[in-house]
From TrEMBL:
Record-given protein name: FAD-binding domain-containing protein
Higher taxonomy: Eukaryota, Fungi, Fungi incertae sedis, Mucoromycota, Glomeromycotina
InterPro entries: FAD/NAD-bd_sf
Transmembrane segments: 6-27
SUPFAM superfamilies: FAD/NAD(P)-binding domain
Molecular function, one GO term: monooxygenase activity
Amino acid sequence: MSTPNNHIPTILIIGAGPGGLLLYHGIQKHLNKNVKKFYVKIFERDIGPQDRWQGYNIGLHPNGVKSLISCLSESLVSRLPEVIPNPIHENEYHGRIYCDHKGTEISRSTSLYLKSLFELATMPTYSTASIISYRNRLRDLMLEGVDIQWGKKCIGYDESDNEVWAIFQDGTRVRGDILIGCDGINSPIRKQKLPRLQLFDYGITQVLIDVAPNKKLMDRIIALNGNFLVHKTFGQDGDTTASMMRLIPIENNITENTPDDQIHYRITLIYTYYTYWDKNINVDDNNPRFNCTSFTTKKG
Ligand SMILES: Cc1cc2nc3c(=O)[nH]c(=O)nc-3n(C[C@H](O)[C@H](O)[C@H](O)COP(=O)(O)OP(=O)(O)OC[C@H]3O[C@@H](n4cnc5c(N)ncnc54)[C@H](O)[C@@H]3O)c2cc1C
């Protein structure tokens, strides 16, 4: 079966996360305006934009900001500052510090005071500089002007030489010329296309706990530990302990008059260790104290 020359191909994007949405905008900006016309359809399993909590924050690195600027329309790019607090807290320095198990400093990255996220786009891609944005605001911005088909959970696809059909859990099928899976880590598209590509378990476990100190407490923590986005300590056995301090308020509606004890920040405490250490830990659900026989053994 041949395709007529005037045929306008249809791209099917599965998943309206950051990847799928940015791809959608990039196609509209770079292909549809300049190179070749495509119809683009985007499908999301969530039933609507507010269906699922999107998380507090997402860190933007130079590459991320460059990609946003490259793919989004000029009007959305001009509104990117809406996804970070305005004004940026004057103490938000985005630095990283690494220490040994005794707390002695090993290295630190330059602490930058970024006045705007656009400054990041001028930095080299290998830079460790980053800026924290509100994850929900970033997604809401990227959803603007995009005609998402909500409540469409893709369960697989059928393909022939020159067409592809996305198959959905609700029993419907949609025809396209190109199918792109932007459906996250458990992608059914990937599982069907590349069944031998399995997730690889590195044998490492990471435990993350979020705490939300108010501004008064946060100021004391900074006075004690310094002002770093990431503070990482290497243990003696290959384990690491880290804290990530986000100095932008969790609340979206902070004004100059908001009392300090009603402004909360997010600190994520992260402990990373070899998964096989779990075998040495006996947890009694009726007794929150656990018994660790040995943390230093290297044998499973
Ligand atoms: C705890 C944590 C913290 C992180 N922090 C950062 C950070 O600070 N900075 C950073 O850059 N990255 C961070 N990441 C990574 C970042 O979240 C991911 O790289 C990013 O979300 C990947 O985007 P994505 O669009 O590819 O996939 P996803 O965000 O997973 O989006 C996939 C979308 O597809 C939809 N979907 C899934 N299956 C189907 C289906 N079958 N049919 C239809 N739709 C489907 C989902 O509902 C979702 O909307 C973090 C990740 C985690 C887990």
